[in-house]
Design brief:
- The complex is a heterodimer of chains A (626) and B (165).
- Chain A has 626 residues and is α/β, with parallel strands linked by helices.
- Chain A has five domains: 112 residues, 3-Layer(aba) Sandwich (Glutaredoxin); 210 residues, 3-Layer(aba) Sandwich (Rossmann fold); 84 residues, Roll (Ubiquitin-like (UB roll)), CATH 3.10.20.600; 88 residues, NADH-ubiquinone oxidoreductase 51kDa subunit, iron-sulphur binding domain (de novo design (two linked rop proteins), Up-down Bundle), CATH 1.20.1440.230; 56 residues, Alpha-Beta Plaits, CATH 3.30.70.20.
- Chain A contains 26 helices and 19 strands.
- In chain A, the strands form six sheets. In chain A, strands 12-11-15-13-14 form a five-stranded mixed sheet. In chain A, strands 2-1-3-4 form a four-stranded mixed sheet, covered by helices on one side. In chain A, strands 9-8-7-10 form a four-stranded parallel sheet, sandwiched between helices.
- Chain B is of the alpha+beta class.
- Chain B is globular.
- Classes of the chains: A alpha/beta (626), B alpha+beta (165).
- Chains A and B meet through helix 3, strand 11, strand 15, helix 19 and helix 26 of A and helix 2, helix 4, helix 5 and helix 6 of B.
Chain lengths: 626, 165
């Protein structure tokens, strides 16, 4: 079946027309009306058991000898991780969620062979309670604009032909043969694309300064050291559509005149590393990477480097130090990395998502691209909508969407009917945004105005059970651990902030602590060496600004309104509600709970270590946390 | 107790060990800058970074031992101590944090008497924490021997750990 394509590849693809011929020949072999079972095999769905589902489909299609008429595709992350493992049956795009291996024989016999729908596997809209049959009708997807992320669900990331079939590498051929490097940079500038890694620096300007920088050897780097906890869109793109990132990098390399590229990926993302590696090998085999790309005379190769698990390496100068085999310490950027970066040579570093935007801009043009978004922030942004929201996962929306639409229309509102408290954006460099700003349009500038930032697009929703002082402490402790220790404001400032916040959460806070925190925050902002330090106080300053009453409740009232801070809470058992099921009694690690079956249990405060195990296991809401 | 050593046997073990290490290091001769990758490969082989091997890396590649050690101690992913048969990694990313990830780490600490980075005396479990595994929609997440366990609670964690041999 694969022979004609293989035949074409005897020699690599050496021209635009050969690429188009290859594409046509791939498309000819594919029957769009053929049944295709696509199973999401991203890290999220794998965690929910997708591999066993894939195996079950393989076995069942072989057992029924239908493997030739039914295609089975393992795709990258679809984004709706909450509902995984996800199975979509094309061409009709029947959408099944939380599929188990046991469901597979029925899916084959009923849906694939007879076209019947299996009700119990359908997604139920939590707002309307309506069962939804087809993928495009699921509200989570329906309200998104999936320009970058959309192909994830359609292609097998380990098969370059899938990417070519959906138009892949046509932007590269356009760039190489119809555009000059200057024209490419001009197009990226006009598109208004800003760096998706966090700070939002205009991408075209960065490219221009690297092109203008003196030097024969220049480097192109893809920053996949996605360290912001709560964000995983880079992982999903590298895992699910690595060729889109590669294509962007090759175009960028051609534009600035670079012949060597690096992809720096987190060590914690083994699947992304594997898929990126396969993509590089395949692109080399097809002549889309390596020497004389598409017969243009342009050479470019890409290497993969795995990170070592240091958050600071997401910072460009630390990342480059780490690429050089040194420890990841940032340096002061008196000279831009675009002039003196990796091995002191001009280096162009962009985030995974930024690179993935490039083929789209080249293919469809800056005019098309800049129609999406707001005046200052163009295009779409992929957010990871997580935390206490009903539909969690990755969502791609135009810049400028309101937080309310994101959280309520796409995210389906807050879990368990709880009350919204805040949304945290921008990771450890960002801040917490309270309810009164739910209607602001989300873009780089608006988030900055609120004391937060875009960051890499993490969006962690918090409800009334989240303690804002605890969150501030969480981020400060995170950054204290991750600070490289090179500059004093960051190393000492964060340590002091952590001490102060710990005291507050333990009921030992003093009135003057709040001023001290603000003071320390100002010093960090003004005095730290790199962006990790200068933005490190944002989570504290923003919570102090919007949720000061929670801080004062901890300090003056010695209580934690959200019931989180261990030293300030107490567990007890509601004798009316307790059914005497013994679950909490068995779960308690210190034997603080006593009682008999079917009789209300009691909790001995003296022995309680406030671990919350009883609260977690109780099915009758009989454990009270105050 | 008298210690009787079969010197031939010991020598053979040391030699096979050295051979493996040397071939690994040799594959990096031209790419000294990829020290982090080399250390990752060594750790994959030995489960931690043995001191002797780091010395060997320094000698063979001509990288100062201080630099090898600074890299080995800077990055979280490396361990200078042998780890247990089962690696339990609790994610403490923000999304897992707001859904109770800390309580799971506390539970392992309590039940097995090990803090993050430590190994039980019987070398069965090593507990580690990680900043984010990128499974934020499914938190809290715990990874046991490379297998991701989503939406964990203390009951499920007990069940998983009790199944480790």
């Amino acid at each position: 079946m694969m022979e004609p394509v293989q035949e074409l590849l005897k020699n690599k693809v050496r021209s635009v027309s050969e690429l188009e011929n290859l594409r046509q020949s791939i498309l000819r072999q594919r029957d769009p009306s053929r049944t295709c079972i696509s199973v999401c095999a991203g890290t999220g769905c794998r965690a929910s058991g997708a591999e066993a589902v894939v195996d079950a489909f393989t076995d069942e299609t072989e057992r029924r000898e239908i493997q030739l008429s039914v295609e089975l595709k393992e795709t990258g992350c679809h984004g709706f991780c909450e509902r995984g493992p996800i199975v979509v049956i094309r061409p009709k795009r029947v959408f099944y969620q939380q599929v188990k291996p046991e469901d597979v024989p029925e899916i084959i016999s009923e849906t694939v062979l007879k076209g019947n729908i299996i009700e119990r596997l359908l997604y139920v809209d939590p707002v309307t309670n309506e069962k939804i049959v087809y993928e495009p009708d699921v509200p989570f997807y329906k309200r998104q604009t999936r320009t970058i992320f959309g192909a994830n669900g359609e292609i097998d990331p380990r098969d370059i032909e899938d990417y070519i079939a959906v138009g892949g590498y046509s932007a590269l051929s356009k760039a190489l043969f119809q555009m000059s490097p200057d024209k490419i940079i001009e197009e990226v500038k006009r598109s208004g694309l800003r760096g998706r890694g966090g700070a939002g620096f205009p991408t075209g300007r960065k490219w221009q300064s690297c092109r203008d920088a003196e030097g024969d050897i220049k480097y192109v780097i893809c920053n996949g050291d996605e360290g912001d906890p709560g964000a995983y869109q880079d992982r999903s793109l590298l895992e699910g559509n690595p060729h889109s990132v590669l294509e962007g990098m090759i175009i960028g390399a051609y534009a600035i005149g670079s012949h060597q590229g690096y992809i720096y990926v987190r060590n914690e993302y083994p699947l992304a590393v594997r898929h990126a590696r396969i993509a590089i090998e395949q692109a080399m085999d097809y002549g889309l990477l390596g020497e004389d790309i598409l017969g243009s005379g342009f050479d470019f190769t890409v290497m993969i480097n795995k990170g070592g698990g240091a958050f600071v390496c997401g910072e460009s100068s630390a990342l480059m130090a780490s690429l050089e085999g040194e420890i990841g310490e940032p340096r002061a950027k008196y000279t831009h990395m675009t002039e003196k970066g990796l091995w002191d040579r001009p280096s162009l570093l962009n985030n995974v998502k930024t690179w993935a935007n490039v083929p789209l801009i080249i293919k469809k043009g800056a005019d098309w691209y800049s129609q999406i978004g707001t005046a200052g922030s163009k295009g779409t942004m992929i957010f990871s909508l997580v935390g206490k929201v009903n539909n969690t996962g990755l969502v791609e929306v135009p810049m400028g969407i309101t937080l309310r639409r994101l959280i309520y229309d796409i995210g389906g509102g807050i879990r368990g009917g709880k009350k919204f408290k805040a949304v945290q954006t921008g990771g450890p460099s960002g801040g917490c945004i309270p309810e009164q700003y739910l209607d602001i349009p989300v873009d780089f500038d608006e988030l900055n105005k609120l004391g937060s930032m875009m960051g890499s697009g993490g969006m962690i929703v918090m409800d009334e059970d989240t303690c804002m002082v605890d969150i501030a402490k969480y981020f400060v402790n995170f950054l204290k651990e991750e600070s490289c220790g090179k500059c004093v404001p960051c190393r000492e400032g964060l340590t002091r902030m952590s001490e102060v916040l710990s005291n507050i959460t333990q009921g030992k806070g003093k009135k003057e602590d709040l001023a001290l925190l603000e003071d320390l925050g100002g010093i960090l902002r003004g005095g730290a060496l790199c962006a990790l330090g200068t933005t490190a106080a944002n989570p504290v300053l923003s919570t102090l600004h919007y949720f000061r009453d929670e801080y004062t409740a901890h300090i003056d009232g010695k209580r934690c309104p959200a019931g989180v801070c261990r030293e300030l809470i107490q567990y007890s058992i509601d004798l009316e509600k307790c059914e005497g099921c013994l679950r909490c009694l068995r779960a308690c690690p210190t034997g603080a709970i006593s009682g008999e079956k079917r009789k209300p249990h009691t909790l001995n405060q003296g022995a309680c270590i406030k671990c919350g195990a009883c609260y977690d296991v109780c099915k009758f809401n009989a454990v009270i946390r105050q | 107790m008298e210690l009787v050593l079969d010197f031939a046997k010991v020598k053979a073990v040391i030699e096979s060990y050295t051979e493996k290490v040397d071939s690994l290091i040799d594959s990096y001769t031209d790419k000294k800058e990829q020290l982090i990758s080399l250390l990752q490969d060594i750790q994959a082989e030995f489960n931690y970074l043995p001191r002797d091997v780091l010395v060997r890396v320094s000698q063979k590649l001509g990288i100062p031992l201080s630099q090898v050690f600074s890299v080995a101690t800077f990055f979280r992913a490396f361990s200078l101590k042998p780890r247990g048969r089962h690696l339990v990694t609790v994610c403490l990313g923000t999304a897992c944090h707001v859904r109770g990830g800390e309580r799971l780490a506390d539970k392992v600490e309590r039940d097995y008497g090990i803090k993050p980075g430590e190994t039980t005396e019987d070398t069965k479990f090593t507990l580690e924490t990680v900043n984010c595994l990128g499974c934020c929609a499914l938190g809290p997440v715990v990874v046991v021997d490379g297998k991701y366990e989503s939406q964990m609670n203390s009951d499920k964690l007990d069940h998983v750990l009790q199944h480790c041999k």
